[in-house]
Structures are given as C-alpha cells and as structure tokens.
Amino acid sequence: MIDAHIHLEQYENIESSIEKWKEAGIQKVVAVSNNLASSYKTLELKEKFSDFILAGVGFHPEKGLPKEADFQEWQRLVCQERDKIACIGEIGLPHYELEQLPTSLEQHIDFLKRCLHTAKDYMLPAALHAVHDKAEIVYQLLQQETPNLSAHFHWLKAQPEVVRQITASGYYISLTPEVCYRHRDQILASMIPNEQLLIETDGPWPFDGPFKEKQTTPLFLSNIVSFLAKEKNRNKHIIEKTIVHNTLQIYG
Ligand SMILES: [Zn+2]
After folding, report:
1. How many angstroms does the Cα of residue 114 sit away from the middle of ligand 1?
2. Taking the domain 2-251, which CATH number applies?
3. CA-CA distance, 115 to 120, in Å (whole number)?
4. Residues 6+ apart with CB under 8 A from 250
5. Is residue 200 annotated as involved in ligand binding?
6. To bridge 236 with a disulfide, which of 84, 132, 167, 229 should be the other Cys (CB 3.0-4.6 Å)?
7. What rounded mean pLDDT belongs to the chain?
8. Ligand 1 centroid to 126 CA: how many Å?
9. Has 154 been labeled as part of a binding site?
10. Which of 203, 207, 212 has its CA nearest to residue 185?
11. Can you say how many angstroms the Cα of residue 35 is from the centroid of all Cα atoms in its chain?
C-alpha cells in the first residue's frame, strides 16, 4: 500500500517506524511539507529512505503565507532538487484558519497561483488542500491557470457537483480513515471513480471512531481498504493493486 498524504517529518523514531510499516506491507508514502524548513526536512528524509519516500515540498495553506525570501529560497530548492521531488504540496487555500490569519483569501489565491505555476514549470503534480467552499475555487484556479497539471485533492470535503467537476477533469481524490466511520466520507467514496481513488492518513493527524486515541500511521490504510472491499463488494487485493497503481500514476 502507499499512503498518498502524510506529514512524515512530524513523526518521532522515523527509522524504526518505517521498518515496522514496511514489514506490514506499506511500500511507500507521499511525504508532504508545511513550509521551507519542513521541505528541507522532507528532502533529507528522502535522501535517507529514497525508495520509501515520494517527497512533496510546499507551504500548508492553513499555516499562513511565507515570507517572500522563504518562497524565493524554496523555488531555488525545487530547481536544485527537482530529481528528488515527487510533488508540490501541501498547497491550497486556508479554510479552518482563514478567520484567524492576518491575510485575505485573495492573497492566498495569488500565492497559490505562484505555487501552481512552479508545479507546472517543473512538471510536478500538486498535492492540494482545498476543502468545503475552497474546493471549487481551487478547481477553477487549476482550470484557468494550469489546465494540464496533474492534481490530487487530499481529504476532500465538497458539494457533490464540485466532486463531479473534479472527477470529470481527471483529478485524483483521496480518502482518509474517516471513511470507515463517517457518512460524509462514505458518500464521497461512492463518487470517486476507481482509477482516480487514492488513500491517505494525513498522519500524524488523529482520527476518531475505531482509531480514537491511537497514533495515526500508514497501518490504518488496511482498514480503509477493508472498508472499501466490503462497501464496493470487491476483492481487497484488487482494490489495493488499483490504488497503488493510481498513486504511482500521479506521484511515481
Ligand atoms: Zn496534510
């Protein structure tokens, strides 16, 4: 299995954890970054565990806009380390923190445009954080600014008509462990075409339901696959194979 979105650099004991995860059948993870320092850390991990990590570099939209100097340095980093980078992410628009941030939505839209153009310039896919009413704005931006860019809407929450637009345009969507216990995500699961479906943990983000008070790791992916197998009445191994294939299509 491949975890299509995890904040790996935020874990402790990464080396021993990766060993454990590999033994349990986790082949790779897409490790995204939150800012410049986090992008450096992710690329360091990529050097160390090159076969296991697909590295993403970016600026998490809920954490506020970076200083211009940081963005410039980040762009140089993307240029220098292009061969080690699998995607630009996590990027997108703030939703949960927008009211608390000192910046306006328009400023975030402008910044996202610059990130999308970096992705396009280096022919890298985008790992997107675009939820609720921001999903449609980001979808429109992709269409207008970088129409041929591959993109993945991670942990998507959006109106059915927006989900349909996203899938009709060939973008990927991932499900998190929430699908095992939350109706909203189960409806989303039924709307994602098999060939555009990814799964992720967004670890170390904590989950509820059967995952309550457990540390989030890629080992949760097998619960998602079991749930989907039951729900879609399909063989677990076929689902796994399809999802791995999809993940490598966009990030491999
Ligand atoms: Zn994330």
Report:
1. 19
2. 3.20.20.140
3. 9
4. 87, 125, 150, 152, 172, 198
5. no
6. 229
7. 98
8. 13
9. yes
10. 207
11. 15
Is the CB of residue 199 less than 8 Å from the CB of residue 224? Answer: yes
Looking from the CA of 32 toward its CB, the CA atoms found within 13 Å total: 28
Planar angle of CA 146, 149, 155, nearest 5 degrees: 110
Q: 19 labelled as ligand-binding?
A: no
List residues bridging with 6 in a β-sheet. 31
Give residue for tokens 């975890």.
Answer: 3
Residue-wise pLDDT tens digits, 125-156: 999 999 999 999 999 999 999 999 999 999 99
| 235 alpha carbon – ligand 1 mean position (Å) | 29
CA of 106 to the centre of ligand 1 (A): 22
C-alpha 201 – ligand 1 centre gap (Å):
9
Quick count: other Cβ atoms within 10 Å of Cβ 62? 18
Instruction: Identify whether the C-beta of residue 174 lies closer than 8 Å to the C-beta of residue 1.
Output: no
**Do 149 and 125 form a contact (C-beta atoms < 8 A)?**
yes
Residue 184 in tokens:
């909203």
Between the CA of 156 and the centroid of ligand 1 the distance, in Å, is 11
What is the reported pLDDT for 67? Answer: 98
Return the amino acid letter for 138.
V
Would you say 117 is a known binding-site residue? Answer: no
Has 129 been labeled as part of a binding site? Answer: yes
Residue with tokens 């990766």: 18
Structure tokens at 242: 């399809």
Measured distance CA(207)–CA(219) in Å, rounded? 13
60 annotated to a ligand binding site: no
Peptide bond preceding 204: is omega within 30 degrees of 0, i.e. cis?
yes
